[in-house]
Amino acid sequence: MNRWDNFLAPYRQAVEELKTKLKGLREQYELSSKHTPIEFVTGRVKPVSSIIEKAKRKQIPLDQIEEDMLDIAGIRIVCQFVSDIDTVVHMLSEREDFAIVEERDYVKEKKESGYRSYHLVIEYPVHTIEGMKDVRAEVQIRTLAMNFWATIEHSLNYKYSGEIPVDIQRRLERAAEAAFNLDEEMSKIKGEVREAQEIITKKREENKPDN
Amino acid sequence: MNRWDNFLAPYRQAVEELKTKLKGLREQYELSSKHTPIEFVTGRVKPVSSIIEKAKRKQIPLDQIEEDMLDIAGIRIVCQFVSDIDTVVHMLSEREDFAIVEERDYVKEKKESGYRSYHLVIEYPVHTIEGMKDVRAEVQIRTLAMNFWATIEHSLNYKYSGEIPVDIQRRLERAAEAAFNLDEEMSKIKGEVREAQEIITKKREENKPDN
Amino acid sequence: MNRWDNFLAPYRQAVEELKTKLKGLREQYELSSKHTPIEFVTGRVKPVSSIIEKAKRKQIPLDQIEEDMLDIAGIRIVCQFVSDIDTVVHMLSEREDFAIVEERDYVKEKKESGYRSYHLVIEYPVHTIEGMKDVRAEVQIRTLAMNFWATIEHSLNYKYSGEIPVDIQRRLERAAEAAFNLDEEMSKIKGEVREAQEIITKKREENKPDN
Amino acid sequence: MNRWDNFLAPYRQAVEELKTKLKGLREQYELSSKHTPIEFVTGRVKPVSSIIEKAKRKQIPLDQIEEDMLDIAGIRIVCQFVSDIDTVVHMLSEREDFAIVEERDYVKEKKESGYRSYHLVIEYPVHTIEGMKDVRAEVQIRTLAMNFWATIEHSLNYKYSGEIPVDIQRRLERAAEAAFNLDEEMSKIKGEVREAQEIITKKREENKPDN
Fold this sequence. Notes:
The structure is a homotetramer of 211-residue chains.
Chain A: H1 3-31, E1 40-45, H2 48-57, H3 65-68, E2 73-79, H4 82-94, E3 99-105, E4 118-128, E5 131-143, H5 144-159, H6 166-207
Parallel strand pairs in A: 2-5
Antiparallel strand pairs in A: 1-2, 3-4, 4-5
Helix pairs in contact in A: 5-6
């Protein structure tokens, strides 16, 4: 096992376990006749090349990244409605299998760039073949529209090393507004949709053939 | 094996195989330094209760559903940009492992409801334990914004059995416009984003540590 | 959500999480250059029909099965060598994410039928959409040969409702002996094989092309 | 995409598709009330380091490995009974989604080392993002006991670079005999077990609760 594989093993394990846990919640919501606040869950371990690059950029010595780089393990929870974000944050804060050590609300206070998302940093205990280890992971919670826009912005930011030209910046802002509007329109129709979804799952249960 | 399990087994198999094939394409794009036209792929077999209900509604006798119900197996391919849809359709039409038997372009000509998507019906040969069988499957190709809206509309349509009240109809239209706008804004920024994504994947390959 | 789905949801979740955790250990062993004591891991929730039948047979009232039926959630860990079983049991007893509440060693003291396996009952905390819940699960640890035989015996036992005819009983005993012999021969070659496996994984790491 | 990733992409895709197809057959057998000849299916693409090493050993120039190395993509089908092997071979030879280009029966004629397995080389068409490509894959079909022994022998062979010392050779032979005996004893009880398994799955279907 080389150094990086060794270093990243607990992060990989944490991501796998957290995905299993959070996807399980989604399935339970689907089986119940309740609106699910979780549309989908993804997870990833930061590629080694990105870790190295970020360490350089942020001037973090490599023996400090465990402490100072908080997004080596990343979990993303994507929601249908803006109000689902609060539901998810509340649900996560009640859990006893990890501790929340940091919390940033970029939904209420979006970043200058237009970026919106709710961020948590958690400390999650993992059992590895070398014993137990607390692993830090960043959990991002956002709507589909926020997620869409953030993906785009991430790419452009990367291309221009954080210095996006003014005209592209402007186009990016208009896209952010369009995403925000979509979230707004969706919110207005939210109550209706939730009710509809509950009716669908109830009907499905009642109509289940007996085989 | 009960009647329904027996009837649905080849459909389940077709959905699994098509998901493996299409997700494989996405992974190949990610490994290459090309923009991937496939954001994600999902698939499902229609629940028995929905098959029965649709058969009643459309007055299809149960012994005719294999011929007349074309969406028992369903695959959805979701794209980042509107122009990716054409790329995907072209790629699917070149394949030799299934035949396209129907094609409907609700992107150029959206449905009255506001629904936009590109639909294909394919005929896909499956090997089951009882021999080979041609299975029909519906493939829906759409952007993230189209997908988002369609999910909402589907729920409401279901709730009101196709007769959505006028005020909700109007809110739904505004949401459709917001989704359309997001797609438009994204299109304007498309070239930039594609180029950025290609740079990212190239960098990642170059920077791969040697271990 | 019907009664059974509701009752079984936490068991399903526990099985998924335990599989992710234990398969993760196996992968960590594979990445390291150590012999892995875990050949493979499977898990299942007992089918409702089997729960009902067992409840009848053992005269457990349905409102008592949560307390009295300990194998509704089942995990099986299969090992290459008999001595791996102890390694796995030790590793599980060190974990802090569940408690071992019962322990039965049918390896040292095989059952009259010839059955060999190490059984643990654990109490595992699951977070569901309705809050936290302690779930009991049975963990069976056995070699490939023990597993092979046990599968066969289970089928025959079921067929004859526990009263296997004498001639088949005898054939089953000879199969148990053959399985036992295989385990014995494997034990004699164990040290050699372990060493060889460690060499292989080390070589693989060293020879990894730099891309 | 580096050279090796590029070269191996169609092999990876072939392995994924073949696993989906063959695991699907197993699931269909399980749903039916028939004995399944497939116990489990695994697949792997040969690690780059092993490809390079084998090319050196067998003196295959690197630009010839596509033609001359037939096990870059590998599928393994493991069976409960020796007679299941023929059932699987027959089933594969009937399929129209690949062609069998080579066939070796090391079950009837075991290798000098004691190795037993049925080998097929198939040619499987894969659609990649660069078009269609015929990929060769080796399919190994064997019982659990054959598989167990082969794993061990592979490790030792590797350790001693094909020249296993006489005393270890002898222990390996005794293990091969023990594995062969287990297969023999299992064959004698086969009819009984198959019948029992069919009874179990039938019962399970009948007893399914109506929900």
